[in-house]
Every structure is written in C-alpha cells, then in structure tokens.
Amino acid sequence: MDHKVGRLMARRLQWQPLKHRPDLAAVAVRSVLDDLDALVAPIDPDLADTAAFCAEYGVPLDASANCLIVEGRRSAVTRVAAVVVLATARADVRGVVRRHLDVRKLSFTAHDDALGRTGMEYGGITPLGLPADWPVLVDEAVTTAGSVILGSGIRGSKLLVEGSALRRLPAAQILSLALPTTDADIEVARPALSGF
After folding, report:
1. Which strand ranges, in their side-by-side order, compose the sheet holding 16-17?
2. I need a surface site. Which of 9, 63, 137, 192 has the fewest CB within 10 A?
C-alpha cells in the first residue's frame, strides 16, 4: 500500500474490493472487473463532481483524476476519445489532443450522447469500460501518481486504482497532456479541459 492509499484509507470513505461490490459500478465498468484490481467506496451522489467530492471527503486534488470525452472530425469521420488528467491539471486539448487525433477541431461530446454511448452517468465517467474503439489518452502524470481516484461510471461511488494500471487498458495511449496550471486553476478544480 503506497503512502497515498494509506492517507485515503484513513478518510471517511469506506473502501472495499470492487469485485465484492460490483453493484457500486456501471455495467460497462463491471465488464472489466477481471482485469482490474480496484477498490470502490460509496459516496453521496450529489457530491460526485471532483471539487465537491474532494472538499467533502477531504481528498487531495492530486489524488483524483478526471475523465472527459471529446470528439472531432476529419473529413466525414468522427473521432471520439477519452482524456484522463489529474484534477490539478488541464489537458492541452487544442494542441496535443487535437493533433494526436488528427482532427481540425475538437469539442466535448454532447452530454446526452456521451452518457448514451458510455452507459455511464454524468459525473461518474471513467476510462474503464469505454467502447473498445475509443482511444484512452492518459496524461503520463496520472500513471506515475501512485493511487488515484476515478469515477465508477455512476455518481454514487468512486474507484481507487493504481495510476500505472491505466497503462494496461487495451486502448490506452500515454501522452504528455497537461498544460501548466496556476493556483487559481487548482483552487477551483476545473474539469481538465481548456482551450474551448
């Protein structure tokens, strides 16, 4: 158990192996249980958004990662991807992500479309269990952060996984995605995208 896990285990969150509580994750996330060594904790669904969750449960922002769904077009082809960065960072969507996906313009996937296509709830979207043809672009800082908290696919719980485990996702692509942040960015824990 790394130092961060020890700190998180001491909080009010009641962590237990996800394989013992699959009901605390979206169906899509349950489909990857065999490949996932994760803990899960129930939370107040009204506090699922990162800033509210961290404030209420006393979790440091650098122990949380955000997953957002973006899409862009090149000719007649729409390319969809997940972007994962620490809550203390903003992803360089206009630069690194757009170029990596080779699209002219990139935007958030429409709210209802993202939920419908992932089978997950808003505020709980996670890089685990996404459609197999979506690249999962993970900022390298997430993979070296030790244990991180992610959404579980539902608003009523959070997952705790080793950031390095995201390297093993079949669609994972590890990139340097984070833009420099200011104290103001960290203070308000903005969702990890910028440039729109």
Report:
1. 16-17, 39-42, 157-162, 147-151
2. 9
State the DSSP code for 145.
S
Say how far apart CA 18 and CA 20 lie, in whole Å: 5
Nearest to 153 by CA among 57, 7, 32, 35: 32
Locate 87 and state its tokens: 């809550």
**Tokens 């082809």 belong to residue:** 77
- The tens digit of pLDDT for each residue in 129-155 reads 999 999 999 999 999 999 999 999 999
pLDDT (average), residues 82-104: 93
The CA-based dihedral angle spanning residues 57, 91, 195, 78, taken in that order and rounded to the nearest 10 degrees: -110
Is residue 180 packed enough to be buried (19+ CB in 10 Å), middle (13-18) or exposed (0-12)?
exposed
Question: What is the pTM assigned to this prediction?
Answer: 0.86
Q: Could you give the percent of the chain with pLDDT greater than 70?
A: 86
**Looking at the predicted structure, is the pLDDT value of residue 191 above 50?**
no
Integer Cα distance of 81 and 41 in angstroms? 27
The SS3 call for residue 31 is coil
